[in-house]
Amino acid sequence: xxxxxxxxxxxxxxxxxxxxxxxxxxxxxxxxxxxxxxxxxxxxxxxxxxxxxxxxxxxxxxxxxxxxxxxxxxxxxxxxxxxxxxxxxxxxxxxxxxxxxxxxxxxxxxxxxxxxxxxxxxxxxxxxxxxxxxxxxxxxxxxxxxxxxxxxxxxxxxxxxxxxxxxxxxxxxxxxxxxxxxxxxx
Length: 186
Prior knowledge:
By secondary structure, the protein is α/β, with parallel strands linked by helices. The chain is built from 6 helices and 7 strands. Strands 1, 2, 3, 4, 5, 6 and 7 form a 7-stranded mixed beta sheet that branches. The protein starts with a strand and ends with a helix.
């Protein structure tokens, strides 16, 4: 069976290799805007399904298509990827010394059906100085990551603890993905 990862993220590619070694990467154009009333937890599932649908419609029902989306949520407010350095500084300043949730939605498209779910992990940041935040932003690491940090890279130094699955914070819950693949193949 042909397996497709509908994501260009090197982090998702690495995580998927924990359960599937042979897959292709194909992505499609997707509108990632959500209505204002949608909670980030619901939003990531909607976007994961949308991303997978764009690819599944293109290649047909003979492949297993896996897609994902991740958002950081602070007090009900979604924090996506920063638009610029000032945006990254604002996000990290808001996260400093606080707990937040990371929601990762996963969708598996197979034989015309969609199987989806969301994994959530609570992340606790220590207090960060303005200089630490600026230095981290200048490194470039936060610019392509939800919430303006990568736990697996430079942003990990700000994390005091997590409650939940580490892979969810990186961008693809391996446990949820495996469960959805198994469900799709029954």
